[in-house]
Amino acid sequence: MNRSLPGVTTYAQSPNHRCAARPRPGTHPREAIRAATVMERPPKVRRVQKQEEHRTLSKPPIPLAYLVTFTCYGARLHGDESGSVDRSHNIPGTPLLSPNPLRVVSEKKRAKQKPYRMDAHIRSLVLQAIQEVCSHRGWTLFAAQVRNQHIHLVVAAEDDPEKILHDVKAYTSRVLNLAGLGDTSKHKWTRHGSTRYLWKPEQVGAAIHYVVREQGEPMAVWEHPERSP
Question: CB–CB of 103/78 below 8 Å?
Answer without folding.
Answer: yes
